Amino acid sequence: MKPILTACLALLLLSGCSPKVLTAQSTADGTRTLNLDASTSVATIQPTMYGLFFEDINFAADGGLYAELVKNRSFEFTLPKTGWLEPGTDKFSLNESSGKSDVIKIGEDRANSNYLRVTVMGPDYVLINEGFRGMGVKEGDRYDLTLAAAVGEGNISRIQVQLIDPDGAALGEATIDLNGSDWKNYAATLTAERTLDKAQLKLTFTGTGTVDLDMISLFPQDTWKGRKKGLRKDLVQLLDDMNPGFLRFPGGCIVEGRTLAQRYQWKKTVGPIAEREYLINRWNTEFDHRPAPDYYQSFGLGFFEYFQLSEDMGAEPLPILSCGMACQFNTGELVPMDELDPYVQDALDLIEFANGDVTTAWGKVRRDMGHPEPFNLKYIGVGNEQWGPEYIERYKVFNEAITAQYPDIVIVSGSGPFPDGEFFDYGMQQLTELGTELVDEHYYRSPEWFRENATRYDSYDRNGPKIFAGEYAAQSVAIASPENKNNWNCALSEAAYMTGMERNADVVVMTSYAPLMAHEEGWQWTPDMIWFNNLQSYGTANYYVQKLYATHAGTDLLRITEGGEPLTGQQAFYATAAKDATTNELYIKVANTGAEPQSLNIRIAGAEPSTTATVLTMASDDLEAVNSFAEPMKLSPIESSVNLQKNELRVEVPAHAFVVYTIQL
């Protein structure tokens, strides 16, 4: 159903006029008077206030942000032929050692030990890769194919490479001429003749005999910043458009792993792509309602690429590392304290990788990957959302070692998976006593919780740790329910809650919605901020709320009050205000979660505002409304303008609305 717009917004959409301006004569008795002091900065709003949390969940990396189109390109999945189809009966065979061999065929690379031996007995012996729920290709776009091959017995001399549709019809093709029994790298370029979201890659062989294949890869040329074998441009553009202050990576629960052996190990994600060791993704069978046994991590999107992406967007990189504890919702496996040194060394080496001189061991690795300049890492996280004495004990060791060697690095600690309760209280007490700089809080709660807790940080100790709201999202049904929706009720409730985070910018210095993105056919967890399929992507209502905050953050918090009190939900109304000292703009953010419009008279003191305000409005009386591939902008900001009367902004805020006013000072 389409949202039922308020009369004000409906007129706005139809006529292009600005929201209703209330003159002194037309002001109703119910008009609320707000006072805004633009002369005094209450607190500095950190550049990191609004950022991004990325985790490889919901096919967000392989099959998503990482633009590789071939699934299981080097045959390293537990079932080595996963993703590869052998059409017909008894037409395709594997050498006995293929898919499980210890043969090393490119240098001394033991991370990529598997390869495929194809026995070709005729022209109809073909090999097909299905991609990540298919391959999205666009008419006229060019795609780079690379592979490693070694010809064995027989006379195989050529491989025809085709993009095909589900009926087998070719969408584009190229040929590769093979020569020699030694491993060699080959390349070809295909141009798509049609747009299709479910294409596949087909390999047909000329001659008979055997040929060994590995690292069969297909990338669009049109990637983010045109980088070869890079990132999917439309997805990065959605992120970059948010002007994020930081990028937290690589998670999330994948940092911890179900077991310690399955934890994320950053050193295995840097260096040459072919030498990065595959790992089963911990989300592949986490939920019975969404099993994904073909969900692995190739680490083509590794720590170097995360740092590079952060740099591209002007965002501070925030890596999170294992603290020697597997996920406590799974095995809870612990590294004994006397065996923790390698984990601590991983943290120290990561800082060297990011910031070290090129003469250092890990600085040289960064240089060899094409980035001799340091990444200027300032933050590092120890653990994801661990809790209890075991975490505090291990955190102390990391804290002491990192602080001793890199005293300027800010260490992010965790308060556990919940915003209250025994685990949270214990963690916050211990971390506060330790003098921790920055504590990561997580909360996935109902929309009602978000609206009712806009005052959460009002009572926090101003001399205690700073807060990183690292994972949060309103859940329309329940935590981890497959029925959760990115509906307007959730997004509006988050908008209301965020006024409380911004109002406490002296305590809250980093915030990020989670999870960030999800594949339409490959998700495990909902809700998610960005949805995509093989060709399209869109931002949810939650995305646009986050974007409005991030692009109107300001540098200085201002006081906006009603009767001397902050707007924290009285009569379902919330507000915050900020000034940008660089642009000299005033930002007023208001959320009306009630079912009736609200008439406001905002009196601006301490500055001389311009005569016109730019207005960005999100509103709908249909609280269940969502954006979709069919209607990607259904819930998104509508721009208009309104005139000020001297130093007063008189407006009517629609029901169920989030509005941002920008005024030049």
UniProtKB/TrEMBL annotation:
Residues annotated as signal peptide: 1-23
PROSITE patterns for this protein: PROKAR_LIPOPROTEIN (PS51257)
Alpha-L-arabinofuranosidase C-terminal domain span: 470-657
Known catalytic reactions: Hydrolysis of terminal non-reducing alpha-L-arabinofuranoside residues in alpha-L-arabinosides
Enzyme class label: hydrolase
Domain of life of the source: Bacteria
A Pfam family: Alpha-L-AF_C
A GO MF term: alpha-L-arabinofuranosidase activity
UniProt keyword annotations, A-Z: Glycoprotein, Glycosidase, Hydrolase, Signal
EC number of the protein: 3.2.1.55
Gene Ontology BP annotations: L-arabinose metabolic process
Family statement: Belongs to the glycosyl hydrolase 51 family.
Designated name of the protein: non-reducing end alpha-L-arabinofuranosidase
Organism of provenance: Neolewinella aquimaris
